[in-house]
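fyi for ur records
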Amino acid sequence: MSFHALALVAALFFQGQAKLEIKDIKEGTGRPVQAKDSLTVEYTGTLLDGKVFDSSTGKAPYVFPVGMQRVIKGWDEGLIGMKVGGERQLTIPPDLAYGDQANGEIPAKSTLKFDIKLLRIDREGDKQDLESTVLTPGTGVAAVEGDLIDVHYLGTFVNGVKFDSSYDRKEPLTLLAGHARVIKGFAQGLEGIKLGEKRRLTIPATLGYGSAPRGPIPGGSTLVFEIEAVKITPKAEVDKGIVADRAKLKIEEIAPGTGAEVRNGDIVAVHVVISLPGGKPLYDTHTDQQTHGQPRTYPLGTQSLKRGFEAALIGMKTGQKRKVTVPPDLAFGATANPRLTIPANATVVFEIEVVKINP
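which gave:
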């Protein structure tokens, strides 16, 4: 075959290969996307007849590294150069999509259309800081380490889709300032907050849940929280309350411990046996099948434990054992616990052994 004939065949072949079509609907701002950037996007995918086969609308946005073959080739090529806030339509031929293979509602050899909005770019080397904005100033003294903060929050993705809210449960989250057992960005966002203050926190994945998915939150997600400090109890009052609770307990020392004492805010691994006065054990961590006989780990200072149990732990040392008789108001109160067969308004006995502090 002559050179000219070969050139003609090649030209006809390449004319038969449809090209990726890129149409910018809205120009974004800031730096353009480059390969290896982590992108947060919203999208809708349709076939040429307009049928929607996938969409992130009303869901968590999609997070992925561009140019790393984590998505179809048409996306890897078609999103380069976009800017945050930009909207782009991609028309992707089969060889840059799923080719000869069907995929769910997508028939084989389909040309696909995607409408994509770029919400965020994260680039290797970026400083991943918390973004905090005061929406409503608070009053009084700023919270310091050891204060107890009751905070309401609304958690959304960067596209505004809600994933959690304490307002829906009508119950604020109680946290100990400086010892908050929450994601790092949320804990940082509470620093120095005042009563009634509202803040908006934008938390990158490195200060959130990282690259692993967590419940409804996909891996790599940037999270937005609007928080409100509805109550702040100063450390002095918190400590006074613990002392008052301790005065209501009957404490019998069984074995001494060594080392540092348990403090409010610590995480403590303990063995515990629960019973009614003079009765046989109703619960024992040593024989608990769910924990395979291992000690249970509890965070102190969030009021998530029974108050008498928590007050009894303060001041204990590693290896120390004590038997604590707790009145009803500091145990299970007026509510019965069917699982443990503890009746309402019952005095409860806890036998506690501290295995490790801050494990």
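Helices lie at 3-15, 73-78, 166-169, 184-189, 235-246, 307-313. thats all i got for now
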